[in-house]
Amino acid sequence: MASVTESLAANGNGACAAAAPLDALPAGRDRPAALISPSILSADFATLADECKRIVDLGADWLHIDVMDGHFVPNLTLGAPVVACLRKHSKAFFDCHLMVSDPAAWVQDFAKAGADMFTFHLEAVADVADLSASSAHPAVADLAKAVRAAGMQAGVALKPSTPAELVFPYIEAGLLDLVLVLTVNPGFGGQKFMEDAVSKCAPLRAKFPGLHIEVDGGVGPSTIDAVAAAGANVIVAGSAVFGAERPGEVIATLRSSVERAAAVGAVQ
Ligand SMILES: O=C(CO)[C@@H](O)[C@H](O)COP(=O)(O)O
Ligand SMILES: [Co+2]
């Protein structure tokens, strides 16, 4: 297989590179390439740099880094200093998922630390009751712009209970590179996949063919086909990858399911 650097270059997703414009995808492809982003939350934190290298060598495209502040979610993980340390040991694409109450406060620190994707929760920036499918909330739009201005790609994450339509205005305005659809309530690895939540990928894929749609939570060989059929192309898997006897085989299984669904063009 291609080296990570080659894969990232081929996918237009090298460190701090701007995402391909949504209208500039190669003809004949209706969605971006499959990208497998193992969550290092399930890795051995005592040997994190080695774990990152091992999983990239086994075929991971991105590394998913779950940042939890003990406030937005009832768990505490790691912050920008750890990302900066990992950056010294890895050229991989750092896909940072900020489960924090005040994501705007961390933009500069994560940019300096070497984060590539900065995905913040819509629910952390505005009250969901104040959001609409037809107009952008200034705080969300401003944060997405600040993330890009800091040199990172911008993503928005949705809890299982948050409707997909609330993110449409920011995609339509060209402010987002990725939407993360959570299929567990945020806070912990190893939870059960919520099948109902994955259905929100279909309207996103139908309306935005070139968007990175990431699914996160309870994804593994037994749930990937539903995720792929719904139209996701970026797959997060923590316990299924790091807990496996042969993580490389799990990564390959996840990728082939997404590629099969993309070839069929199915969105369910
Ligand atoms: O963001 C989260 C949970 O809040 C995820 O990234 C999980 O860490 C994924 O772990 P698994 O469900 O795949 O074990
Ligand atoms: Co995550």
Automatic annotation (TrEMBL):
Give binding positions for a divalent metal cation. H64, D66, H97, D216
Cofactor annotation remark:
Binds 1 divalent metal cation per subunit.
Which co-factors does it depend on?
Answer: a divalent metal cation; Fe(2+); Zn(2+); Co(2+)
Query: One biological process GO term for this chain?
Result: carbohydrate metabolic process
Please verify whether the record's keywords include Metal-binding: yes
Question: Which keywords accompany this UniProt record?
Answer: Carbohydrate metabolism, Cobalt, Isomerase, Manganese, Metal-binding, Zinc
- Where is substrate bound in this sequence? S39, H97, G187, F188, G189, G190, G218, G238, S239
Similarity comment: Belongs to the ribulose-phosphate 3-epimerase family.
Q: What protein is this chain from? A: Ribulose-phosphate 3-epimerase
Species name for this entry?
Answer: Monoraphidium neglectum
